[in-house]
Amino acid sequence: MSINKSFQGLPKIVQFILLIIPGLNWWVEIIVRVSAFCNKQGGIGQVILAIIPITGVILGYIDLIYVLVKGRLVLTR
């Protein structure tokens, strides 16, 4: 089981807590996206993976809203 699937399997409140904390959401972004990229390689995944070190915290807050609405991170299927 990949880390991406494990993250999606967590209760929404735990996902929310992991993504609301400013430094932690950056690490969660990197770990979950690398796991999603390793399982499914795609062009858009490479782009997102490349910009996470620069905009990880901002993307983390976008993902926070997306997780509350959809239950997963943006562009990780």
Describe this structure in words.
With 77 residues, the protein is mostly helical. Helix content is 81%, strand content 0%. The chain has four helices and no strands. The chain has helices at residues 3-9, 12-20, 22-39, 43-70. Helix 1 packs across helix 3, helix 2 crosses helix 4 (43-70) and helix 3 (22-39) crosses helix 4 (43-70). The protein is globular. The two termini are 14 Å apart.
Characteristics:
mainly alpha; single chain; globular; 0% strand; 77 residues
Please describe the topology of this protein:
Layout (H helix, E strand, L loop, with lengths): L2 H7 L2 H9 L1 H18 L3 H28 L7
Helix pairs in contact: 1-3, 2-4, 3-4
How many strands? 0
Helix % is: over 70%
Unreliable parts: none
Determine the oligomeric state from the structure. single chain
Q: Treating each run of at least 4 consecutive H or I residues as one helix, how many helices?
A: 4
The ordered string of helix (H) and strand (E) elements is HHHH
How would the global form be characterised?
globular
Strand content: under 5%
